[in-house]
């Protein structure tokens, strides 16, 4: 939606890059009204795709799933699932902090 609405363009990291930089989250909603909108962006905001001058997203990808050739989505997903399980395990076994966590979600 963000791309279609003209807010940015997809970068090497598969996230929307705006004039201000990379933005990881956008929301959308459905309404029953006519609204003004922009056309999709045609300028390339991803510096790597534009002139190979960046690549920070590849260099800092914690899972190693993002490369200059593309993204290994299963590897990325596995890393996210593993780290989420590890965080939940730490919360569960970390004493009083874990008890507070469980009280908040129950």
Give me the secondary-structure category. alpha+beta
Please tally the β strands and state the result: 5
Which percent range fits the helix content?
25-40%
Radius of gyration (Å): 19 Å
Largest beta-sheet characterization: 3 strands, antiparallel
Helix and strand pattern: EEEHHEEHH
Q: Topology, please?
A:
Blueprint: E1 9-10, E2 16-18, E3 21-23, H1 47-51, H2 56-60, E4 66-67, E5 70-71, H3 73-92, H4 96-105
Question: What is the structure about, briefly put?
Answer:
By secondary structure, the protein is an alpha+beta fold.
Can you give keywords for this protein?
2 domains; two-stranded antiparallel sheet; three-stranded antiparallel sheet; 38% helix; disordered C terminus; 4 helices; alpha+beta; 106 residues
Question: What can you see in these coordinates?
Answer:
The chain is of the alpha+beta class. It has 2 domains: 1-60, no CATH class; 70-106. Helix content is 38%, strand content 11%. It has a 3-stranded antiparallel β-sheet with strand order 1-2-3, with no helix packed on it. Strand 2 (16-18) and strand 3 (21-23) form a beta hairpin.
């Amino acid at each position: 939606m963000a791309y279609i609405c003209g807010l940015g363009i997809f970068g090497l990291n598969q996230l929307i890059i705006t004039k201000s930089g990379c933005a990881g989250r956008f929301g959308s909603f459905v309404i029953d009204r006519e609204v003004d909108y922009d056309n999709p962006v045609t300028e390339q905001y991803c510096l790597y795709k534009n002139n190979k001058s960046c690549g920070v997203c590849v260099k800092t990808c914690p899972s190693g799933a993002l490369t200059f050739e593309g993204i290994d989505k299963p590897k990325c997903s596995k890393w996210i699932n593993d780290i989420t399980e590890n965080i939940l395990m730490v919360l569960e076994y970390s004493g009083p902090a874990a008890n507070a966590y469980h009280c908040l979600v129950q």
